[in-house]
Specification:
By secondary structure, this protein is an alpha/beta fold. The protein has helices spanning 19-30, 42-50, 84-91, 99-108, 127-140, 173-177, 197-200, 203-211, 230-242, 290-305, 310-318, 347-354, 393-400, 412-426, 448-470, 474-477, and strands at residues 11-15, 34-38, 66-71, 96-97, 117-122, 144-149, 165-170, 186-189, 222-226, 246-252, 259-263, 266-270, 276-280, 328-333, 336-340, 360-365, 383-389, 406-410, 432-435. The chain folds into 3 domains: 11-97, NAD(P)-binding Rossmann-like Domain (Rossmann fold, 3-Layer(aba) Sandwich), CATH 3.40.50.720; 100-318, UDP-N-acetylmuramoyl-L-alanine:D-glutamate ligase (3-Layer(aba) Sandwich); 328-470, Protein-Tyrosine Phosphatase, Chain A (Alpha-Beta Complex), CATH 3.90.190. It is built from 16 helices and 19 strands. Strand 12 (266-270) and strand 13 (276-280) form a beta hairpin. The radius of gyration is 25 Å and the shape is globular.
Length: 487
């Protein structure tokens, strides 16, 4: 745990007792703060107390006594309207921040010689895979890498800060909205497409939140920026023109004069002169598809920016096992392959998955995002049949009408069984059942991870059932009796 001592002897309010809120409460208490933690949800309050974090109703307190309000990223800061506690804090001038800001201030308080390296990764899609890949490369190359933030462990639950450590932080727009002091030695911004507009108001608000990952960088720092969408391409051009830091563009499909790119299935390094081919993408089975080409290029460019040798980076990448819930190969049942892409919570992410496979039995639906799935129209010829679940099922059905066969499955277990039955009966070459929902999960599941685990459990149950049903009767196969002596 990283101890936060900035508020020793003072009262610190923590609102929102999910993973990051509990982590912040513990870190502040360890640093001597008098922590008052609260959540509107009684279940979260009970879970906090069970985890050793006492709760206290901050609504009934005098807010002028608070030195800080630490807000969980899921709590609305500005849109669709500020949460009640945000308005209370603003009314009396209490600073509002998140756990990443607490971490940033702890790093900044150290003299430069004692600071760790901080690698921040953001983007609408791909940030989890890229963060995990960067941490994997660093670890494989003998570095003390800690992966956290919006993936895995909350940042303040990571091991204590010291020189020589590398903190690889996946950063959502919600987290960045609550951050002012973070300085990234390498800031990775993969892409930007419409998402979370209810929380940021519009694309300008979303763009502004993402831009916070670039704040406070100096001349020795690196910005690794995607060049494959118009928003990030413009940011990359602006940063290069302004100067003040080192900039590397990354792409999947475009040859670049300065940066790293995957073109024609090969990774090219053009960071220090003429482009050199360094590896083939198919050397990494866990990273299929064009979208993973950009993730691969970004992780490679980041490792190069941190001073690692190209050969060592390539060897590390080749051993990457992949990320759970992102094109995760779950298993095969009687020749039908199952792929868990539960992390695809919007249409762009689902498009990336659908682009990998020429023909799929597609499980989709859940809690729809703004914009729906109209952008997936060009990919519907790849859909052998869709199995629709959750709140969005009927809206998705209306979209698919006349474009692809579909069935309203309702729930995930039913979708798995129906998709398997159809895929097995069709006798396609290498049939694939793909869970890539293009939706949030909150209508039926706790989060996308819960949804992914449910998918894997359903596949495991199906596999056990099918194997039991098709297993030959060993006794009869050897001429044995099934009952009695036959007398």
């Amino acid at each position: 745990m990283i101890t936060i001592g900035d508020y020793a002897g003072r009262e610190a309010a923590v609102f929102g007792l999910g993973r990051t809120g509990l982590s912040a409460a513990r870190a502040l208490a360890a640093g001597g703060a008098r922590v008052l933690a609260w959540d509107d949800d009684a279940k979260n309050r009970a879970a906090a107390e069970a985890a050793g974090v006492p709760v206290s109703d901050i609504n009934a307190r005098d807010w002028r006594d608070f030195a800080v309000l630490v807000l969980s990223p899921g709590v609305p800061l500005t849109h669709p309207k500020p949460h009640r506690v945000v308005e209370l804090a603003q009314a009396v001038g209490v600073p509002i921040m998140g756990d990443v800001e607490l971490f940033a201030r702890a790093v900044n308080a150290l003299s430069p010689a004692y600071r760790p390296k901080v690698i921040g990764v953001t983007g609408t899609n791909g940030k989890s895979t890229t963060s995990a890949l960067i941490a994997h490369i660093l670890t494989a190359c003998g570095k003390d890498a800690r992966l956290g933030g919006n993936i895995g462990r909350a940042v303040l639950d990571l091991p204590p800060i010291h020189a020589g450590a590398y903190y690889v932080l996946e950063l959502s727009s919600y987290q960045l909205d609550l951050t002012r002091s973070l300085r990234c030695d390498v800031a990775v911004w993969l892409n930007l497409s419409p998402d979370h507009l209810d929380r940021h108001g519009d694309m300008n608000g979303y763009l502004s939140a993402k831009k916070r990952i670039l704040m406070n960088q100096g001349a020795q720092d690196w910005a690794v920026i995607g060049a494959d969408d118009p928003y990030c391409a413009r940011v990359c051009t602006e940063l290069t023109a302004v100067g003040g830091r080192q900039v590397a563009a990354v792409s999947s499909g475009q040859a670049l004069a300065h940066g790293a790119c995957v073109v024609g299935g090969r990774l090219y390094d053009a960071l220090a002169g003429r482009a050199q081919a360094v590896m083939d993408q198919d050397q990494v089975p866990a990273l299929p598809g064009r979208h993973n080409g950009q993730n691969l290029a970004a992780a490679y460019a980041t490792a190069r920016a941190l001073g690692l040798a190209p050969r060592a980076i390539v060897e590390a990448i080749a051993s990457f096992p992949g990320l759970e819930h992102r094109l995760e190969r779950v298993g095969t049942v009687q020749g039908v392959r199952f792929v868990n892409d539960s992390k695809a919570t919007n249409a762009d992410a689902a498009a990336q998955a659908l682009s990998v496979y020429p023909r799929v039995y597609w499980i989709a639906g859940g809690q729809a995002k703004d914009g729906g799935i109209a952008s997936l129209a060009p990919l519907t010829p790849r859909v052998a049949k869709a199995y629709l679940i959750g709140e969005a099922a009927y809206d998705f059905a209306a979209f698919l009408e006349g474009k692809a066969a579909f069935a309203i499955a309702g729930d995930l277990e039913t979708a798995v069984r129906r998709a398997y039955a159809d895929a097995a009966a069709a006798r396609d070459v290498d049939p694939v059942v793909l869970l890539s929902p293009a939706c949030a999960s909150f209508d039926q599941f706790k989060d996308f991870e819960d949804r992914g685990r449910a998918f894997k459990a359903a596949v495991a149950a199906l596999k056990a059932e099918v194997e039991t049903r098709t297993k030959p009767n060993v006794g009869l196969a050897h001429g044995g009796h099934t009952s009695g002596s036959g007398a």
